[in-house]
Amino acid sequence: MSKKVNAYGAKDSQADLEPMSIKRRDVLKDDVEIDITYCGVCHSDIHTVKNDWGNSVYPMIPGHEIIGRVTAVGEKVSDFKEGQLVGVGCMVDSCQSCSACEDDMEQFCEKGATMTYGSKDEHMDDHTHGGYTTSIVVDKKFVLHIPENIDEKAAAPLLCAGITTYSPLKNWNVKKGDKVGVIGLGGLGHMGVKLADAMGAHVVMITTSPDKAEDAERLGADEVLISKDKDAMKEHQGSFDFILNTIPVGHDMNPYINLLKRDATMVLVGAVEPLEPVHGGGLIMGRKRIAGSLIGGIKETQEMLDFCGEHNIVSDIELIDISDINKAYDRVMDSDVKYRFVIDMASLKN
Amino acid sequence: MSKKVNAYGAKDSQADLEPMSIKRRDVLKDDVEIDITYCGVCHSDIHTVKNDWGNSVYPMIPGHEIIGRVTAVGEKVSDFKEGQLVGVGCMVDSCQSCSACEDDMEQFCEKGATMTYGSKDEHMDDHTHGGYTTSIVVDKKFVLHIPENIDEKAAAPLLCAGITTYSPLKNWNVKKGDKVGVIGLGGLGHMGVKLADAMGAHVVMITTSPDKAEDAERLGADEVLISKDKDAMKEHQGSFDFILNTIPVGHDMNPYINLLKRDATMVLVGAVEPLEPVHGGGLIMGRKRIAGSLIGGIKETQEMLDFCGEHNIVSDIELIDISDINKAYDRVMDSDVKYRFVIDMASLKN
């Protein structure tokens, strides 16, 4: 039920990524076999490789922003054909029967979604392995169609950074003319700006760094608000219809809560750790809201990809060879990438 | 433009409440003059008397849960007639032209609502004075009709505690069969239980004190969840459609966030101070939400009063004479009241 393929992975939480080979399951009746062409590098890959969240399993092959071409399909697969451009994001399976799955929100599967790497693979005696490899087999329900008109290598980050920012914008009903703040200009933030702009919002990039202003505007921001500038923050107080907060670490949310209009929401997509104390009065005055959002369901991910195809939206990327992956990790940790590394998987095949 | 009336108030933040007399404005064309029969004692009265929030003005006559009978009306008043039972809550005026006022949410008036006490009175050279007195004059738009079928003295707390808990239950669309948690069994919490129960919700009182269980059930709770009981908290994890959090001080919200279903909201109505750090992951997993809510608009307050009339809902009160007010304050601070003190204002007239 499995064959060996080349990959790059970590033996344990202390190890750099290095070449290894992994078992890959055979193509079952509902499966799609994909020849991986590109895989994005997500900041969460690094946290997981280093076991920062304490639930990592080794050997680990990271990668959940996977682009490739179909090479084979199982007998019950009709939606996918050999040669088609496809993608795989953060999940590869779920129970398909709980209320979350029934509501097309497999990311909240009550039995726990099978993540693309590091989860128990229900179909073989191994845990799942991600996209830093040459080939993957995934249940058809978790394979996405990638629009052929967009740059496929730059489409890879849509599978995580794209859906992570698209889902809250849609779920909180961002619409033409809304004043939308995007806090933080990184992998998530730069997608948030592009997507909110394409939805017709008046986009304000909120950043600590004045030197990011030009780039934010190139990406689609109508304004840049420097969060350290108290006068500017005061001017924008109470004026935002929605704020997408992509800051990846704990921080003080109170100055951003002040920016919200009455009844408006700020959604966290980056900070999975404790945040600084929120002032209750800041929420009570103006009936303001804070919420979290996690990637998106498969149906919504396809909707996002179609939206990106229609608006010709991809990520800004820097293409690397697999042998550069450890250097790339260092640069991600230094926020030194505009705005996402993508691995050219041909470099692993050669 | 003013006459003197008897009142009980504080000279400064160090002073106990004592008899004093205050100027009361004459009845203008849009005004309603009210002979005050009862006034509730809100915990926020104590904070304001002691200047805990730093914005108090003296001499201060507290009280914003006012019940009385109309004694006179201005020439442009047709909705109110002499002898009618009426109420006044936390606000007595607002700009009536900003978007919040246009949306019937005067509590969020962009120019700042005129609070029942301690705000600039636009109609005379003084600040406003609250309900610990015998007579008040209020613009007709801020006077509420009290259903004649309910116990008028026990209706007083509806004007603050009632609307503070009714508004979020309605705004977040609590409906028949919803599992609703009410955290904290005090002045706000006991109203939350009664109102959510009357809306048909399955009400769970969430409290640290097992000895409150019996009373919670008497008030309408279907279940009592002891928040210190980790096993019980785990059993209820991810099961609440809505949580009304009435805890009046900073606290750890994370155990309560865990109780919410996917996409469910916990609303803060009590804690106007910094809360302990929220764990971002707790919001992100399950797309959960926290929000604040502040009293309610005048239209909604009337709706709440009509609802209470229909369901015969009032507050559980302990009636006191005005001369007992300082002792009552001490007991409120010791959480030693079931569940609201109401001053019999006849005791000030004698």
Automatic annotation (TrEMBL), chains A, B:
UniProt keyword list: Metal-binding, Oxidoreductase, Zinc
Domain of life of the organism encoding this protein: Bacteria
SUPFAM superfamilies, alphabetized: GroES-like, NAD(P)-binding Rossmann-fold domains
One Pfam entry name: ADH_N
PROSITE patterns: ADH_ZINC, D_2_HYDROXYACID_DH_1
Co-factor requirement: Zn(2+)
UniProt-listed InterPro entries: ADH-like_C (IPR013149), ADH-like_N (IPR013154), ADH_Zn_CS (IPR002328), CAD-like (IPR047109), D-isomer_DH_CS1 (IPR029752), ER (IPR020843), GroES-like_sf (IPR011032), NAD(P)-bd_dom_sf (IPR036291)
GO MF annotation terms: oxidoreductase activity
EC supergroup of this enzyme: oxidoreductase
Family to which this protein belongs: Belongs to the zinc-containing alcohol dehydrogenase family.
PANTHER family cross-referenced by the UniProt entry: ALDEHYDE REDUCTASE
Name by which UniProt lists this protein: NAD(P)-dependent alcohol dehydrogenase
Species per Swiss-Prot/TrEMBL record: Pricia mediterranea
